[in-house]
Write a structure and sequence with these properties.
Elements lengths: L1 H9 L6 H29 L3 H24 L5 H4 L17 H16 L1 H20 L5 H25 L10
Helix pairs in contact: 2-5, 2-6, 3-5, 3-7, 5-6, 5-7, 6-7
């Protein structure tokens, strides 16, 4: 099933140069824009260093967690598994979980916990990044899905710890 879904999305690449460039943009460059937008939103629109710290600390923890899991779980990338898959850009290391998926879903879900409407936008951004990485041939759908589930779980656990252990109402929208 993982392979079937992968090939469905991967088959959109290598057809048109314009579409390949869009895929590369969302897989490689758009993540930087999302991080900048999240930082600007939290610092200048919400004006909260505490929320900035919560979102980016949980995302940083998720990033480290994904690196540890990649060492423990040696899952090959699609272009390594299948000789007919040619990635749109070079990528190294193991695939599961997708570091991009886990980082951006943690970021998005943390913002969602704090601010529902903005969270929906950032979740959409995370989905676009994950889908582009499948279409680019550098991840299987299971890598992305695993990253999304782990990212949402990490952000929820981090929010729970901040709210209950440190006894703050920031996560409930109260000041």
């Amino acid at each position: 099933m993982n392979d079937i879904i992968f090939y469905f999305f991967y088959n959109f690449s290598h057809k048109f140069i314009f579409l390949d460039n869009i895929i590369i943009f969302f897989a490689v460059y758009f993540p930087f824009i999302v991080v900048i937008l999240a930082g600007l939103y939290l610092l200048f629109y919400r004006k909260s260093w505490r929320e900035f710290f919560i979102v980016f600390m949980s995302s940083g923890i998720a990033y480290l967690f994904s690196k540890i899991l990649k060492i423990l779980i040696h899952e090959n990338r699609p272009f390594v598994e299948f000789s007919n898959v040619q990635a749109l850009f070079s990528e190294t290391g193991f695939a599961f979980p997708s570091t991009h998926a886990i980082f951006f879903m943690t970021l998005a879900f943390s913002i969602f916990i704090l601010h529902k409407k903005a969270g929906y936008v950032f979740i959409l951004f995370a989905l676009l990044i994950g889908l582009a990485r499948i279409m680019a041939g550098v991840h299987f759908p299971f890598d992305i899905l695993g990253g999304f589930v782990l990212g949402a779980g990490i952000s929820y656990m981090f929010a729970y710890l901040v709210k209950n252990v440190y006894n703050t109402d920031t996560l409930c929208g109260k000041r």
